[in-house]
């Protein structure tokens, strides 16, 4: 449940009621269930090496230094309007990573960052501004699911100090390992005093739907938002399964893949643990066999917004046309 993770007597006396005056309610077709809408929010743009996105037989250090083919990627997070409160899936990047020379403490990290990514960010890409653009106050976010601890997914946590931040216990353990910053997990921007981190331990499930996964976690306690471990990009990466009557099921996979189609074809990115990624890909494909129509939605996939529109039978966010 969302509430069982909240500290007793916390914000709003433990209530998750939302001030709906600040919530942009979707006036298109409503589903019959606790979730009103699932939206992709863009928190800036970037470029990465083609070898990073689509994989390469060359060693990672080769393409980091000598790769010349850059491809664009969106930096996205997702907003779920649940009747118990607003839920964010990831929090975007902090634009200070470009403007603050000390954002990354280690010189080697600063040096490598711009050989791995080209960022196109402005102050408007910070999560509180992005949410305001969507008609939502950052202070109304009750829960943020953090798919994994990379800097482009935790960059907004300082803007939502009232929210419970759900992270897998396995992912959190990386912070205790030597040099998490070498994995682009920046402790100084994660272990901040205002952050209400809540570690998730996945519980066993006898639901055959989840066979193969190492447990589940029901975020709201109503079965509409189920967290599943999908490691590979990082050791503790997780995905969120959203199910509601009248919609196609949706799986927000974070960075398990950079594009839904790549997962279907077993095309690995140039980063992460190959064997673990392949195992998670296979689990997701098996899940889709059991849940026909499952929309696989990746954080850095330009088609994420359209996939969500189709799954929730809303007009396309990009074209304004009715999705079939
Ligand atoms: Zn990412």
From TrEMBL:
Point out the coiled-coil segments of this chain: none
GO MF terms listed in the record are: hydrolase activity; metal ion binding
The protein's required cofactors: Zn(2+)
> InterPro entries, from UniProt?
MBL_superfamily_lactonases, Metallo-B-lactamas, RibonucZ/Hydroxyglut_hydro
The Metallo-beta-lactamase domain, residue ranges:
74-300
Q: Which UniProt keywords apply?
A: Hydrolase, Metal-binding, Zinc
Q: Which family does it belong to?
A: Belongs to the metallo-beta-lactamase superfamily.
Q: What is the name attached to this protein's record? A: Glyoxylase, beta-lactamase superfamily II
């Amino acid at each position: 449940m969302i509430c069982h993770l909240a500290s007793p007597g916390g914000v709003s006396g433990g209530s998750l009621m939302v001030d709906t005056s600040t919530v942009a309610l979707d006036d298109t077709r409503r589903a019959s269930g606790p979730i009103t809408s699932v939206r992709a929010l863009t928190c800036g743009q970037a470029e990465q090496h083609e070898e990073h996105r689509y994989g390469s037989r060359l060693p990672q250090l080769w393409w980091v230094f000598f790769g010349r083919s850059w491809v664009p990627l969106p930096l996205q997070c997702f907003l779920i309007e649940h009747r118990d409160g607003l839920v964010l899936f990831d929090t975007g990047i902090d634009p200070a990573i470009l403007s603050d020379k000390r954002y990354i403490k280690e010189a080697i990290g600063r040096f490598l960052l711009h050989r791995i990514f080209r960022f196109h960010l402005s102050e408007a890409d910070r999560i509180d501004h992005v949410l305001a653009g969507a008609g939502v106050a950052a202070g109304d976010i009750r829960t943020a699911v953090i798919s994994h601890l990379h800097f482009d997914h935790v960059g907004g946590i300082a803007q939502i100090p009232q929210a419970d931040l759900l992270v897998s216990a396995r992912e959190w353990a990386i912070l205790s390992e030597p040099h998490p910053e070498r994995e682009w997990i920046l402790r100084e921007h994660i272990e901040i005093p205002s952050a209400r981190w809540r570690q998730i331990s996945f519980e066993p499930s006898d639901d055959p739907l989840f066979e193969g996964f190492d447990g589940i976690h029901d975020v709201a306690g109503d079965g509409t938002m189920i967290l599943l471990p999908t490691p590979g990009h990082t050791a503790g990466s997780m995905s969120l399964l959203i199910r509601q009557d009248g919609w196609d099921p949706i799986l927000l996979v974070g960075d398990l893949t950079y594009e839904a189609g790549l997962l279907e074809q077993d095309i690995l990115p140039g980063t992460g643990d190959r064997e673990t990624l392949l195992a998670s890909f296979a689990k997701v494909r098996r899940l889709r066999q059991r849940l026909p129509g499952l929309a696989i939605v990746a954080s850095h996939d330009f088609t994420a917004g359209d996939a969500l529109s189709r799954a929730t039978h809303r007009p396309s966010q990009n074209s304004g046309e009715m999705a079939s």
